[in-house]
Each structure stands twice: as C-alpha cells, then as structure tokens.
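Posting this for the archive.
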Amino acid sequence: MKTVGRAPRADFIVDAALVSRLHCRITATADKLEVVDLKSTNGTFVNGKRVHKGHVADGDTLRVGRVELTVQKRIMAKG
C-alpha cells in the first residue's frame, strides 16, 4: 500500500497544483492496482473518469490534479 500526494509523508510525492497532501492510496493485487481517493479536493481519475475506488491496469492513465501517470506492467526476469 502506497500513498500519492504533496505531503513529505506521501510515498510518491507529486509537488504540483491541484494535488492534495494525501491524494490517493494505491494497493497492488495479483494483476491490477487498486486506487482509493483519500477525499482529495480535486479528485482521482482513471482513464478520464472520476473514481472514489477503482482499479488501474497496464496501459491505463491515473490522474491526480493535472498530473497524468500511465500504468505499465513490469515483467521481472527469473533467474
């Protein structure tokens, strides 16, 4: 579980306009990431749709404030 926001205590710091101190929380599941808005002022968006709780998968766009993040699945090599 990781948080996104402007605050120094956020796991992923996004120092940008319209981003709340603790904007959203991201939790990894087996094949997706679950996103929960933490009562941010300007909302959390997945593929342009405002969500309070939702999932993002490979290729999806997560927007906090005016910052857009594209989710990419990373495959780790075994060995």
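Strands lie at 2-5, 12-13, 24-28, 33-37, 44-46, 49-51, 53-56, 61-64, 67-70. Residues 28 and 78 are 20 Å apart (CA to CA).
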